[in-house]
Amino acid sequence: MVSAANAFLNTLDADQQAEVLLDFSQTNATAWSNLPCGSSCRPGIQLGSLTDTQLAAAMKVVKAATGTGKGTGYDQITQIIKADDVLNSAQATSTESAGPAPSGGASSTASADPSASATDAPTDVPTGTPPSGGTGGGGMGGYGSGVYFLAFLGTPSTTGTWQLHFGGHHLAVNETYKKGKVAGASPFFVGVEPTTWTDDDGTTYSPLATMRNGLLALTSSLSTEQLATAKLSESFSDVLLGPGEDGQFPETKEGIKASSLSPKQKQLVLKAIHPWIANVDDATAKKLMKTYARELNQTYVGYSGGTGLDTQGDYVRIDGPGVWIEFVCQNGVVYRNQIHYHTVYRDHTRDYGSEFTFS
């Protein structure tokens, strides 16, 4: 990880390095968002400003830090970034129908699945890699694979404390390292719109399918009586512990306690947790899963809305002594006739490597 970080830094000039190497302060660490707000809400260097060589080195850093599983870790992260190109092109196509298109369009095509159209746009919309972040580029915001940012908070080393800070729209990766080991793999925010699409080469992407399917397997295993116990008292239109909500865990755990579940259902809880933990490198993920397995009997499962995870307000939560996971369905923003997903993984004691205290 440190080797990849230094290799990336060596591709940058002094001004660029100053954008990447920042203080590991609470202000910098907590400056992440799920919104397409560009550099106005997150620190670091913008991917769209990098040369091809620099970009390749930057993504090697992300790859070194994240899991190798299919549909998780690095694979999932790259799919989330691709989804932003779909949104960027959908907006460009929508603008073309009303007038001149903004810069950043591309020539390939993709369509959402199920068949759906962006607001005022045809079903089939172009997608590709827009220059300098595409619509709303220049770092201020908008959709596109260029509008993602990477920073090192503190100096990458195998002896000190530092954090990888990477993200953009629907993505926030925060991994904290102490003396060469991962001290915290959270907060990790991931979302996606559209939830599924097929690219022009015939490849179908569903970046959050593994997460959603794991939760569906868990909730569908619950009996009518168990579902009644698991039902939360509130309704949710978004995740509770999103950006700016650091340390705001509910004082009282709600839902059904895993200690009351059958052995098979307990395994389904662990399987449901794993896709979020797999955002970090495989060795660290294995250690975290062992911790969460030990804490399983004190872990709660709750839901609000429906359990189908296909309707606005459908929400599932897993809350343990350590692990905290939320998954919520929202109405689409660009593809308004379908829902999209927001999710977050936190840890009651390990967020930001336990470096900060939140009241």
Structure description:
Helices cover 30% and strands 22% of the residues. The protein is built from 9 helices and 16 strands. Strands 1, 2, 5, 6, 7, 8, 9, 12, 13, 14, 15 and 16 form a 12-stranded mixed sheet that branches. Strands 4-3-10-11 form a 4-stranded antiparallel sheet, with helices on one face. A hairpin with a 2-residue loop joins β6 (161-168) and β7 (171-178). α1 runs antiparallel to α4 (52-65), α6 packs antiparallel against α8 (263-277) and α8 (263-277) runs antiparallel to α9. The protein is globular and about 60 Å long. Mean pLDDT is 89; it is low at 97-109 and 113-139.
Short description:
This protein has helices at residues 2-9, 14-20, 26-29, 52-65, 73-98, 209-220, 224-230, 263-277, 282-294, and strands at residues 21-22, 45-46, 108-112, 124-127, 148-153, 161-168, 171-178, 181-184, 188-192, 197-199, 204-205, 256-257, 300-304, 315-319, 323-331, 339-347. The protein has 359 residues and is α+β, with helices and mostly antiparallel strands.
Topology of helices and strands:
Layout: H1 2-9, H2 14-20, E1 21-22, H3 26-29, E2 45-46, H4 52-65, H5 73-98, E3 108-112, E4 124-127, E5 148-153, E6 161-168, E7 171-178, E8 181-184, E9 188-192, E10 197-199, E11 204-205, H6 209-220, H7 224-230, E12 256-257, H8 263-277, H9 282-294, E13 300-304, E14 315-319, E15 323-331, E16 339-347
Parallel strand pairs: 1-5
Antiparallel strand pairs: 2-5, 3-4, 3-10, 5-6, 6-7, 7-8, 7-9, 9-16, 10-11, 12-13, 13-14, 14-15, 15-16
Helix pairs in contact: 1-4, 6-8, 8-9
Which structural category fits the helices and strands? alpha+beta
DSSP strand content = 15-25%
N-to-C series of helices and strands: HHEHEHHEEEEEEEEEHHEHHEEEE
Largest sheet: 12 strands, mixed
| Subunit arrangement of the protein | single chain
- What is the β-strand count? 16
How big is the Rg? 20 Å
The helix count comes to 9
Low-pLDDT ranges: 97-109, 113-139
Mean pLDDT: 89
Distance between the termini: 32 Å
User: What percent of the residues sit in helical stretches (DSSP H or I)?
Assistant: 25-40%
The dominant shape is: globular
